[in-house]
Amino acid sequence: MISISQRIAQELNVAESQTRAAIELLDGGATVPFIARYRKEATGSLDDTQLRTLEERLTYLRELEDRRKAVLQSIDEQGKLDAPLRKQIEEADTKARLEDLYLPYKPKRRTKAQIAREAGLGPLAEQLLTAPQ
């Protein structure tokens, strides 16, 4: 699996060293206009358009990695994670693809009615509905 900086470098057709330098500057709190104007030597003359694209892709790919970890952990806790599924999840390149893979394993939301039934209130509700006023 390739790193985030390698992937962004491929997408922007620039050297990985340029993307790594830009990522370090962005993580350090520098803004895109600042980097484009005052840190061209560090980023290998990336322009503001490339830097903005890099910033957007960096955010997206980091969110994707965080979600991937959460999905893997959730499926593993259910005891349903096998090698082919893990491979598919690790190779998912978009959030939509990742969510499509996770959908069959996603825990169902419990409604208030389901919680009441689990607490044993089903017969009481039936009695209240059928009893005359």
UniProtKB/TrEMBL annotation:
Residues 3-76 form the Tex-like protein N-terminal domain. Pfam families: Tex_N. Coiled coil: none annotated. InterPro entries: Ribos_protein_bS1-like, Tex-like_dom_sf, Tex-like_HTH_dom_sf, Tex-like_N. GO terms for cellular component: cytosol. GO terms for biological process: translation. It comes from the Bacteria. One of its GO terms (molecular function) is mRNA binding. Signal peptide: none annotated. PANTHER family: 30S RIBOSOMAL PROTEIN S1, S1 RNA-BINDING DOMAIN-CONTAINING PROTEIN 1. This is RNA-binding transcriptional accessory protein. It comes from Cylindrospermopsis raciborskii CS-506_A.
